[in-house]
Amino acid sequence: MANNDAVRLGDLDGSDAIYPPFNRVFPYPKFLVINIYGGYTLLSGKSICITHPDQLLVAQRLQSALAQIGIEWGIKVQSANQGRENVGVQFEIKPLEYGIDAYEVEIEIYSPYQNHYKNGIISLLATNLPSLENGVGTLIQVIQLAFEEFEEDIPSLWIRDWMDTSYSAG
User: Fold this and answer.
1) Element (H, E) at 155
2) What does pTM read for this prediction?
């Protein structure tokens, strides 16, 4: 998931960069980079894809948060390399370079109305189940804050965080 542009932008922004309304995310992640050129359009009918049944409760938490804003997504078991058709969020547990308790969220550009952006998904990589839970908590906050501000369009962004988060925006 981690693309080179996002890595470079994250390095440029540093950990003290904050972006309203996302400065209200708590705990504030170490890196949060926003792509100002596009966003992800939330629509019903997508799926939260988990790679193992032990991720089901975490997926249901995200599903419930989406339902509260009128977005209905199903849950299915699917590996990250099985394609993107009707995928809203793809979970994946794997090693990350930041530590044993880390996660990354990438919200790609997705617009059903533009041919070049019909395959964008939200990826959530984590090193373990507790990190996945933390990533989902952050993603839910991002979705809720974006929905308050922009309705169904979430800015495309990239987040990475790991266990020793001590910085909070304010």
Assistant:
1) strand 153-162
2) 0.85
